[in-house]
Amino acid sequence: MSKILVTGGAGFIGSNFCNMMAEKGHRITAFDDLSLGKTESLSKKARFVKGNVNKKEDLKKAGSDFDYIVHLAASSSAPMFAKDMYYAYQNNVAGHIAVMLWAREIGAKKMLFASTSSIYGNNPTPLTEDQEVIPPNHYSVTKMAQEGASRVYSKAEGLEIIAFRFMSIYGLNEEHKTTFANLVSQFIWGMAKDEEPILYGDGTQERDFTNVKDVVQGIELAMNSPKKYGFTVFNIGTNKCINLIELVKLINKVMGKKTRPKFIPNPVKEGYVKSQLADITKISKELGYKPRVELEDGIREIVENLAKRDSKSCHRL
Length: 317
Ligand SMILES: NC(=O)c1ccc[n+]([C@@H]2O[C@H](COP(=O)([O-])OP(=O)(O)OC[C@H]3O[C@@H](n4cnc5c(N)ncnc54)[C@H](O)[C@@H]3O)[C@@H](O)[C@H]2O)c1
Description:
By secondary structure, this protein is α/β, with parallel strands linked by helices. The protein contains ten helices and 13 strands.
């Protein structure tokens, strides 16, 4: 049993991590300012503390007796930077430093955090961790800064820090992200109401859609690994990708529908990713990671969950 502090614990990936780890008997503290996440996503087995990673008094309130810190709190997607760039930089860069200092101060064995595959921009696929990267937008610049600060701090202070470059993550508990949610969820929610999914350009852009359960698997393996890296980076993906036209077909198949997508000119002018596909050799060889959830099964889980929720709300009417 480990004691784990999870920042951003009420968010999409955070709540899935907290719930699955709490189920395994770990002592989980989910820490979140609820700027986006919802406590309703969390299992009763996880302790919740409301707080902001940028406020030390809030981190203190969460306690100091932790083996690991899993840092997922962030302004979690590129469009959030358009709304308030200053705040988002502060949240991601200063917030990361605050958590890193706290991890060192409390003597945590390891800090593990979410970087992003957006860092790769339009690099040739499959994307490998040793590629040279030029982050294409403010969001990925902040993640690059997190990685850089972690590399230097780990070397100077001996704190073990692991960064994950997640691909396109989808799964349950994503409703609070609304228009920031993964396309898999957004398409399912819309298609359930017979709305056409909107595809930018010709719809041939490809993504390595990865179920959140496989993200939890990757973080857990890195957390429990006895190997010492100082600082290192792992991709988390599936090493499979499909384009958005194929994605809509697959959702139609699972939902038993024939919804046609609507194509519009791509409104994203800068840094739009054409092709995303993770090379997962490093995490597979080092930690024994193996993606387990097939996209079709992950889609089915979201569809069934939506149907369950809708039938519950019908009963309440
Ligand atoms: N979902 C993806 O596809 C994906 C891909 C790559 C990287 N990531 C990264 O993974 C992490 C989790 O993303 P997510 O998809 O679960 O998004 P999310 O927005 O659901 O989760 C982030 C959580 O952090 C909380 N938060 C934000 N600022 C905070 C602060 N200052 N103090 C405390 N809590 C704060 C929010 O309320 C939210 O619950 C983020 O760092 C994100 O950048 C996500």
